[in-house]
Design brief:
The protein has 274 residues and is an alpha/beta fold. The chain is built from eight helices and eight strands. It has an eight-stranded mixed sheet, with helices on both faces. Strand 7, helix 7 and strand 8 form a beta-alpha-beta unit. The longest helix is centred in the N-terminal third of the chain and has 16 residues, at 2-17. The N and C termini lie far apart (50 Å).
Length: 274
Amino acid sequence: MRILFFFLLLAVTCRGSAEPLALDYAQRDEGALQLDLHLPESSPDKLHPVILWIHGGGWHRGSRNDIKIVSWLTEQDFALVSIDYRLTGVSPFPAQLEDCRAALAWIREHGAEHQLDPSRIVVAGLSAGAHLATLLAVSLPEGSPPVQGILHFFGPADFLQMARYARQPEDPLNQPESNLYQLLNGPLRERLELAKEASPVTHLDAGDPPCLILVGDKDTLMTQRQCERLHDAALEAGINASLHLIPGAGHGGKEFSDPERQTLILTFLQSILP
């Protein structure tokens, strides 16, 4: 009986150790915003480089639980910090960016208490989360410490480029059901100044961190164009940027974390982190 109790206790302990640690990182009128800490099981006494992960979902849905595309990085000694942020049903832009900035500030201030290295942070996200991650990295307030890199998975980067398809009131991007309408709290054609401010390409300069952009060649043409636009604008600004087009991949899928992409991402991370 004593042996059985020991193994049951061990099983519970091991199962619990795999669960992320959920912590509040900011308070808003609607309540607390939380993040999950996913730590490597090895090297429990060291500070780990951080992947600050921002989920997708068109800015109006999704949660910090959506980490599948990067969850493997904890096996490579990276800590994964996955955050929730205010969705557009709660508050439009710039609330989402403000929340991402608050999460980054939390890592800077409290990360070392949780085995996070505040001097080695890469921001990452997919789709709408890629937009927010990139915008976060390239629009930090003056005097803020930079992040070390950006992992951009098939997200938008230039809303003014998209506005070419929103010149008429009846165009889809001007309709209330449009994700971009909800983000900007109005039709794209009537929110061009805010759209410019919300576009990562607006803020690029030579001091911004290296960026790896991944997109599938079966994704929508607009998504591919947006990733190409980000890549070209980053190079023009003097940023170390790389665009990786994945044959056969759509808007997400297993191709983004297959062995070839894992090698690509690890090579990128190892090249930018001391």
